[in-house]
């Protein structure tokens, strides 16, 4: 039994040794500095929210601590729960079918399956309503068969469908990356020991995929938490919806800040939850070489039914929106609707998104290295967790907070591309951190140690050994940030230099006043432009696989 | 491969880095900076006309009225903005402490009902509150005399509204002025009892009325015309200007004010004068289908003239009392 007198010296000893442990395991200063800087950057919005909410005084807190707030939180949690589960299942199955089976048309479907990611929320929601909603296309098609009314689309049902279509690609990309690096020898060993396919998947594949699944579904949950367009148009009131109402109709930024702090708290809960799901296990191969390609599972007579299943999200998340957009465009052109120039916005979209992707990856790298290589030093995990907060906040909140810091403390970069890029980094950092982190976990630290043992300086090891090995993660993370930046709206509107237009801002501008044809032209161009790098990635992957190395 | 990727990104970075300075005026004059809560689709062309006519460079920061108001409040006296062009008086009211008093020659261009009594902003264009109805479900003879009639149980499950929308809230504020608190509460409770479908804004109600999801919605009049332009006369929704002289047919205004912190006030005032000139007012009348606010410019032919609308006498500037209206809306459960 522990007595008080025993505990006291033990506690004192712990306290005395803590600084030593802290210093002994401390990562090298440059790495530490970069990591802490990234963490602080990610925390800026939260700092601002505290300042602004405290500023609001008692009224603000009274408004926030109402029964109604708990109700909306409950609705938000319900939506997040459903969307996360469905997206995770769909994304994982799609990744497995398109990568590890002999399903037909794999390359085309792989590209198509990612693209719903790039369709702005309000475009996805509006086209879905036109198709599935009351008086919509589907109802028109079913009318000849005597179907008068289809089930109501708006509300939880519609919001779930639209959000799943926009978020399963996060899981798909994350799991796909993990599956590609998965050593098939593990699964083969399990099979040779008499496990069936399902058992092997459960006992071997799933545990290895767990960190990737957790990372992907965390992005899904955080995105759902922060989305405004879909929930507003589908009339499912969530927390972000309430925050927007404070900005847009109550015009009360203090209450908006207070509500956003609740959202931060919610995000922290999700992050903790993910930390637990992720598990502690570590998997890395001891060799640096490319993984031998896995043997595709033979689907046999299930090939075409599987293609049917895979096509479902492609049809709903890509074909239907593109179909409706094309209809809007043709209809408008036939009625002489004037168009706006799209060349400059398109170029701006690509340039700023590429730059954002590069910067985010660079900022994410030290965070990922800390989290994987220095995980025993406790602040590493904290920094990695903290970088996720921005993604769970609505873009408008992050943007307004950066207005505050920009105007007051960084005037020279205010309303310049630099502050805008900074905003993108804060928003999208977790996507890059997750991808790089996962790649890094699969590389054995022994390889880096060997290089250092051979006399290489740490920085050279990083550039010549680590970086090439985590390149798949860097590219995947960068591509994800690119796609997310392409459609980003609120931060772009608020932080960009005056007059800076992207395809997303053109789409928003046209759609707010029901200029459907213009909305359609810009949206179709956005989808096409996002499709190019996605196709490149997929084709590159395939050559990687068949070439057996690089 | 990697080198190619990195260099292309750097080129991109340099290209967009230089954008910021590209728009400075070669003549050295400071460009006029406008924060516009109205979309470029609607006001972009008329701002171009102003540039062409005056030679004054204009930079426009487009966004939603609420987000721009929040941005202005954060920027405070350091704001680069000279003008705030807002969707509605509520947005201007939120930053009223940052607005300068306008000179009488600008202020007097707008009619008395469409400007701030403290002289902080002027109305630029008018929009009427109307009912939008689905033509498949209803014909004009079915339509109510007054917005009050929508509390009749026969409309149960057939109505749409947007309680979070600022124009709607301005109408309810007008209601409180004209009908008093009790009658306004009765109306709101009557509507809530009829299970209205809650939309986020006006245009979604217009689409829903045409699609048959609702039979009647409460909107600003001008959204319908863009739908008609895109979808043709076969579009299955129309506006109904309620004939009763009551809050249901109040006319609101989009307006603009000059920031106190502006060091470009002369150009800013010229901008406002231009927006209230016959050229610009003609643009709003014919292109955005809004109501012109000055004498001598007539509304679009498809619209009933402003004088003929049963418009109640209500001072728009008193419609800025959003807080009590929102409390009331929350009280009856229309708003969370």
Give a quick precis of the structure.
The complex is a heterodimer of chains A (550) and B (336). By secondary structure, chain A is an all-alpha fold.
Average pLDDT of chain A, to the nearest integer? 87
Oligomer: heterodimer
Shape of chain A, please?
Answer: globular
Q: What is the correct CATH architecture of chain A?
A: Orthogonal Bundle
Largest sheet of chain B: 9 strands, mixed
Low-confidence stretches of chain B: 16-25
Strand content of chain A: under 5%
**Treating each run of at least 4 consecutive H or I residues as one helix, how many helices of chain A?**
23
* Low-pLDDT windows of residues of chain A: 1-5, 543-550
Taking all Cα atoms into account, the compactness measure Rg of chain A is: 24 Å
Largest sheet features of chain A = none
Task: Spell out the key features of this protein.
heterodimer; A: 550 residues; mainly alpha; MetI-like fold; 23 helices; disordered N terminus; B: 336 residues; alpha/beta; nine-stranded mixed β-sheet; 9 strands; globular
Description:
- The complex is a heterodimer of chains A (550) and B (336).
- Chain A has a single domain (24-286, 309-546), classed as MetI-like fold (Orthogonal Bundle).
- Chain A has 23 helices and no strands.
- Chain A has helices at 4-24, 29-64, 67-100, 106-114, 121-132, 137-142, 156-181, 184-192, 197-226, 229-233, 239-248, 253-278, 303-334, 343-373, 379-386, 389-392, 395-409, 417-441, 445-453, 458-487, 490-495, 503-512, 516-547.
- In chain A, helix 9 packs antiparallel against helix 18 and helix 14 crosses helix 22.
- The radius of gyration of chain A is 24 Å and the shape is globular.
- Chain B has 336 residues and is of the alpha/beta class.
- In chain B, strands 1, 2, 3, 4, 5, 6, 7, 8 and 9 form a nine-stranded mixed beta sheet that branches.
- In chain B, helix 2 packs antiparallel against helix 10 and helix 6 (166-193) runs parallel beside helix 11.
- Chain B is globular.
- Residues 16-25 of chain B have low confidence and may be disordered.
- The chains are: A mainly alpha (550), B alpha/beta (336).
- At the A-B interface, helix 3, helix 11, helix 13, helix 14 and helix 17 of A face helix 1, helix 2, strand 2, helix 3 and helix 4 of B.
């Amino acid at each position: 039994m522990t007595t008080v007198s025993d505990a006291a010296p033990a506690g004192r000893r712990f306290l005395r040794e803590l600084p030593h442990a802290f210093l002994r395991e401390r990562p090298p200063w440059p790495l530490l500095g970069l990591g802490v800087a990234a963490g602080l950057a990610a925390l800026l919005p939260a700092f601002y929210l505290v300042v602004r909410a405290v500023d609001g005084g008692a009224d603000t807190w009274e408004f926030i601590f109402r029964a109604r707030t708990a109700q909306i939180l409950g609705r938000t949690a319900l939506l997040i729960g459903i969307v996360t589960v469905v997206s995770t299942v769909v994304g994982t199955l799609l990744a497995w079918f398109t990568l590890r089976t002999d399903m037909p048309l794999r390359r085309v479907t792989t590209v198509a399956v990612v693209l719903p990611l790039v369709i702005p929320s309000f475009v996805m929601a509006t086209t879905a309503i036109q198709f599935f909603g009351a008086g919509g296309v589907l109802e028109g098609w079913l009318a000849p068969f005597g179907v008068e009314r289809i089930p109501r689309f708006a509300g939880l049902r519609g919001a779930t469908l639209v959000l799943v279509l926009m978020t399963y690609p996060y899981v798909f990309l994350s799991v796909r990356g993990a599956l590609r690096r998965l050593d098939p020898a593990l699964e083969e060993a399990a099979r040779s020991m008499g496990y069936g396919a399902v058992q092997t998947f459960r006992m071997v594949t799933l545990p290895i995929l767990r960190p990737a699944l957790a990372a992907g579904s965390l992005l899904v949950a955080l995105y759902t938490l922060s989305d405004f367009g879909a929930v507003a148009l589908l009339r499912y009131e969530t927390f972000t919806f309430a925050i927007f109402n404070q900005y847009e109709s109550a015009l009360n930024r203090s209450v908006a800040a207070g509500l956003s702090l609740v959202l931060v708290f919610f995000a922290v809960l999700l992050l903790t939850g993910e930390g637990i799901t992720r598990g502690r296990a570590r998997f890395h191969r001891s060799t640096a070489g490319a993984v031998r390609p896995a043997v595709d599972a033979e689907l046999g007579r299930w090939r075409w039914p599987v293609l049917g299943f895979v096509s479902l999200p492609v049809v709903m998340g890509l074909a239907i929106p593109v179909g409706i957009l094309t209809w809007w465009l043709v209809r408008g052109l036939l009625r002489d609707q004037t168009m706006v120039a799209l060349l400059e916005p398109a170029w701006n979209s690509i340039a700023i998104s590429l730059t954002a992707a590069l910067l985010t990856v660079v900022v994410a790298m030290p965070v990922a290295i800390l989290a994987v290589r220095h995980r025993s030093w406790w602040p590493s995990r904290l920094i990695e967790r903290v970088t996720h907060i921005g993604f769970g906040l609505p873009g408008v909140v992050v943007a307004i907070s950066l207005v505050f810091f920009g105007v007051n403390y960084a005037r020279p970069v205010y309303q310049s591309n630099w502050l805008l890029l900074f905003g993108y980094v804060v928003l999208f950092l977790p996507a890059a951190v997750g991808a790089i982190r996962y790649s890094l976990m699969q590389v054995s630290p022994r390889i880096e140690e060997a290089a250092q043992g051979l006399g290489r300086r740490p920085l050279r090891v990083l550039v010549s050994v680590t970086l090439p090995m985590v390149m798949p993660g860097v590219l995947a993370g960068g591509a994800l940030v690119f796609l997310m930046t392409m459609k980003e709206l609120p931060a772009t509107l608020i932080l960009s230099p005056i007059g800076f237009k992207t395809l997303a801002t053109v789409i928003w501008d046209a759609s707010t006043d029901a200029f459907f044809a213009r909305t359609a032209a810009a949206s179709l161009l956005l989808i096409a432009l996002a499709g190019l790098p996605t196709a490149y990635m997929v084709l590159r992957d395939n050559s990687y696989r068949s070439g057996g190395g690089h | 491969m990697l080198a190619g990727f990195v260099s292309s990104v750097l080129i991109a970075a340099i290209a967009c880095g230089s954008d910021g300075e590209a728009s400075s005026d070669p003549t050295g004059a400071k460009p006029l900076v406008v924060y516009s809560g109205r979309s470029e689709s609607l006001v972009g062309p008329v701002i171009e006309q102003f540039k062409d006519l005056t030679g004054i460079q204009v930079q426009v920061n487009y966004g939603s009225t609420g987000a721009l108001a929040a941005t202005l409040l954060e920027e405070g006296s350091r704001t680069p903005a000279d003008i705030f062009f807002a969707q509605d008086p509520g947005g201007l009211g939120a930053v009223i402490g940052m607005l300068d008093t306008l000179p009488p020659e600008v202020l007097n261009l707008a009619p008395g009902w469409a400007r701030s009594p403290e002289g902080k902003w002027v109305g630029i264009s008018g929009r009427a509150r109307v009912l939008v109805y689905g033509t498949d479900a209803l014909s004009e003879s079915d339509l109510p005399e007054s917005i009050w009639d929508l509390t009749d149980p026969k409309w149960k499950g057939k109505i749409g509204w947007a309680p979070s929308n600022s124009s709607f809230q301005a109408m309810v504020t007008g209601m409180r002025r004209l009908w008093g608190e009790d009658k306004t509460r009765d109306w709101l409770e009557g509507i809530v009892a009829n299970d209205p479908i809650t939309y986020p804004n006006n245009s979604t109600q217009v689409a829903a009325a045409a699609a048959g999801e609702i039979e009647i919605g409460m909107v600003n009049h001008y959204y319908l015309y863009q739908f008609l332009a895109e979808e043709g006369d076969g579009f299955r929704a129309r506006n109904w200007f309620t004939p009763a002289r009551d809050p249901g047919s109040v006319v609101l205004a989009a307006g603009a004010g000059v920031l106190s912190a502006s060091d470009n006030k002369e150009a800013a005032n010229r901008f406002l004068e231009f927006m209230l000139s016959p050229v610009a007012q003609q643009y709003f009348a014919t292109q955005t289908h809004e109501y012109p606010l000055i004498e001598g410019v007539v509304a679009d032919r498809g619209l009933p003239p402003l004088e003929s609308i049963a418009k109640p006498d209500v001072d728009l500037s008193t419609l800025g009392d959003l807080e009590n209206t929102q409390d009331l809306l929350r009280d009856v459960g229309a708003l969370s």
